Amino acid sequence: MSLVGVAQMAALNEPFDHISIIDLKDMCNPDLAIRKNLADHVRDVCINVGFLYLQNYGIPDKIIEDALEASKTFFSLPLERKMQFDFRKTPNYKGYNPLLSGNHDPRYNGDLHEGFDIGWEELRADGNDKRANDGAMAGANVWPADFPKFRESVLTYYHAAIELGRKLFPLFALALDLPEDFFDDKTKNAAAIMRVLHYPPQTGPVDDLVVGIGAHTDYECFTLLWQEPGIQALQVLNKQNQWIDAPPIPGTLVLNLGDQFARWTNDVFKSTVHRAINRGGVHRYSIPLFFGTDYDVKLELCV
Ligand SMILES: O=C(O)CCC(=O)C(=O)O
Ligand SMILES: [Fe+2]
């Protein structure tokens, strides 16, 4: 059946009420039939939901723990110190985003989170860069010089997640019935902006105009999201406009599709609206990494 046929069937389906777990253990299996079987599951979820959990994603816990620890320390610094890295003062929006500086959904009063944005950078600057730091978001990252652990830990996670993202493109290609190397020449200097986020607890009377991050879709091909265990905040909108909780599931990352894949597939793949509200009474941290292609890739219909 063609993808369009599958999409027509999907349109008849019930709105989703949960988010599936996809096990990546067979992602690089030498047997194509096994990889294809995995890709078929991915395709189904991409057409119907646009959100999934990834299991066996291959990033060691220690790398995640270190990035979390360093992020907590950074966000606990005094505001004046953090404001030295204000993203509005840096080339192409790298650095610190204070609370309420963003507003993903203009109906609300601003996003109740602070963040720190980085783009491509080699961990060791030895002149052997694996790729060029070019494209629309080119420009150096900014880092607190007296807190080297922050750069080391956050960038180590960034590179581990980039490795994972690179392996996912062939899986998406298979899911779209394309050659597995379809994205290879389109992801040489792929867009890959990562944000470390801190959501303070939302306490007091519930005000629907106050959210951690307002309802939105992501822009790129897909997002890999690590969210802090044990704290429910992320929600995903289904076809009946119901908010479905996407709680952290131990041992998984969340993956959601973005507008670039939706546009590229003529909306066969779904870029699903989501938001986060941190009403659990505790501080919450999350780390999304937004994967696009090279900035100059032409989006020609691929299904
Ligand atoms: O923090 C989260 O769970 C969601 C973050 C998000 O949706 C985003 O940064 O685009
Ligand atoms: Fe998002």
UniProtKB/TrEMBL annotation:
Keywords: Iron, Metal-binding, Oxidoreductase. One of its GO terms (molecular function) is oxidoreductase activity. This is Fe2OG dioxygenase domain-containing protein. Residues 189-293 form the Fe2OG dioxygenase domain. Belongs to the iron/ascorbate-dependent oxidoreductase family. It comes from Grifola frondosa. Gene3D superfamilies: B-lactam Antibiotic, Isopenicillin N Synthase, Chain. It comes from the Eukaryota. Signal peptide: none annotated.
